[in-house]
UniProtKB/TrEMBL annotation:
InterPro entries: AB_hydrolase_fold, Chlorophyllase-like. The keyword Transmembrane applies. The chain crosses the membrane at residues 35-52, 58-79, 91-110, 116-134, 141-159. This is Alpha/beta hydrolase. It comes from Oceanirhabdus seepicola.
Amino acid sequence: MMMKKINIKEVLKKIIKGIIGTFKELKSVDRSTKIMILMLSFIFSVLIEIGLDFYFKFLVFFVIFNLLFYVGYFLFGILSKPFKFIDNRLMGIHCGIYIVFYVLITESSYSFFEEVNATVIVLMVISYLTFFLAKKSTIGALKICYCIFLSVVIIIQLWSFHIGEYPYTGENEEKIEKIYSQYLKEDSSIYNVLGDENIISDYNVIWYGNQDDKRSRYSNGELKTEVVTIGEFIEEPIGIDKMWRMVYWDTQFDTVPINGHIYYPKNEGAYPLVVVIHGNHSMEEPSELGYEYIGKFLSERGYVVAMVDENYFNGSWSGGYSDENDGRAYLTLKHIEQIFQWNKEEGNPIRGKINEESVALFGHSRGGETAFLSKLFTEISESPEDYGVDFNFPIDIKSIITFGTTYGQYESCGDYPKIHDVNFLAIQGSNDGDVSEFQGKKSYDNVIFTGKDFYFKSYLYIEGANHGQFNTMWGDEDDDFPLSLMINKSELISGEKQREIALKYTYIFLESTLNDREEFIPIFKNNLNGINQHENKRFINGYSDSESYTLVDFDKNSYRYSILTDSGIGKDGDVAYEIKKIRLRDNGKLNNKGMYISIDESTKNIVGFNLKRNIEIEEYNYLSFDMVSFGAKDLIYNIEVEIFDGDGNKVVYDVNELYPLWDSIDSNVMKTESLNDDLGKREGTVFQTVLLPLDYSAKIDNISVIKFIFDEGEYILDNISLIK
């Protein structure tokens, strides 16, 4: 039997004609229904993509639109006229869309996720050809075969959302544990604070709120409050967002209620106050309830913990506010004012429970920036903008803790604000899919010490931690559906472990700064002091305090030092360095400059600094500097540091004998290479503060020259200081 010769030209013409005529020739669904499905798919796809940049929109839009239209049309057809709605041209459109998506997202690098999408394309083409050849046939088996192909395509597409190109193998965990084992401290047990040994009391919980609030837990609260006028802090929403907020909250837009609940010890006494401020999530979700674990833990250990409700400022499916964190800060301070009133009120359950001179703020996400701005607003005597409200907050905020904080959404007079004389701790995860760059470092840099009293600031960067798991209600998805399906969860640590780390550092920080437990401060100077046995995730920390003396930084005129590049090692060329603004993961800039150093075979490997005068070191315990490296082969890098006194005497530090200098932590927040590129660099530009003990240098009493000797690689150096 002779096979009929296939006319490729005619086949292509039919395919093209089929694609163009798809919506005209789909017989089993009437035109109005097809148009409705098409429009709804388009509208939902557009809504889902609001807020993303164009490139990201372009890629994800096609997939979402395709999937929504495909599923909608398929289900409607099956339910109305089984097997009769199917048309080959439908497959033509989706083949075309998927091919475009696949070509754009591949970008010359193949991944498991992209291979799954390639499989989808192949199945679509087979499905298309199967029905194309059987177009005029009434054989039910072929149509059933087509339905099977179609179902497989949908299943594979949905499955591919959950399978990323970066499945976490854990191959580094054994190496990390082995490296850490070399630095374990014998006295680290002091930092094991999560047990029951520090519990001093059981706790009570009291709810407070406005009697007209729609949520009964607040309207029925034991303590009643009034609403707060928020003036010009936010712009009145418009359109559907305004309509939905009016329906959901049933309130005016220029006022917000003072709602919350307070954990406090049952034992008699006045305790420090910790105010917990949630961030931006769905306004329909009670985000403040996601920090109950903090309230219970701290109140049992001698703290009054206020959980404030600021969900009125949060977004929803209908839209949301932006640049509203100053309004959140104003509301936070009104909460504290109200709590202080109750603390003095006869017969009030919390009367006398609070030490008003010992206040700390804790903030997550936008709540972190809210805490920062709250401190700013206590430092000023009048409104920094035309808010239409009074500003007078004599509240002594001693400490601030932030998790995954935002920074820079509020600017005063065109500049980012600075706060003064407060203890500060910023915690961030390497796999934060919401605040992808370490904005807490920006806040850290803008905490300024005047030198009147002792304060310190620190940060902790945790490998494998994300944004949402600090809140028990937000979970492990750092984006809304369906983009949450593109989050790569394989690298995440468990929510339980993430919260345990957060609790440990929160409690130790509060004990250090509010209860004068100085024995806890070393963990913030060097996180190795608190590393437990079998730790297999990397931690990077930074530290500075009000007693530090800066030897070298790159933001001011170099009147204190000059740069030496003539090392005398005998290599050809000069050290390649450049002083410029430090850039973070998504190419955002820090507030300060650093020295970018690139060492290869053609460059000298020493950078030195000649101090303009000899600096006496008798009062200080450490020489410190901040450094980050990129591209180390074995997770850690090494450098040597040489210090010279005015007479030429020298002391040499092999830094790896004291610290594991971790290379920058790579993280794949999203499932595909293209989406990770959209976030910026995979590695985080997070500096490790290195403290070199000066008792090593007993034979010198001053410093005249400091030299750094590098292996080949890329480095950024900043903030060379003396610390007591």
